[in-house]
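Justification of resources, computational component.

The compute hours requested in this renewal are based largely on the per-chain cost of generating structure records like the one below. Each record pairs the submitted sequence with a full structure-token output. That output is archived, and it is also reused by downstream analysis tasks.
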Amino acid sequence: MLDVREPWEVEICMLPGSRHIPMREIPARVQDLPISDEIVVICHHGHRSQQVANFLVQRGYESVYNLQGGIDAWAREVDARMPRY
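The structure output for this chain reads:
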């Protein structure tokens, strides 16, 4: 899981096991993401993560997924104990 939210957002909540790289840093750090990995991209509501997922696919990544609804949907539908903002 690749969390592309801002650092202040990650301080509020984060899915365990996620890797945090803010969206603005992705172009400079794309080489840090193994192209063979399956990547689920996460943001607050799913818009930024969709942009990052599209960016990765354009660069040859094949197993890239966007977490629809973002971490907010996760908190509402999967883990009600997770803080929301």
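The chain has one domain: 2-77. The helical segments are 7-12, 26-29, 47-58, 70-77.
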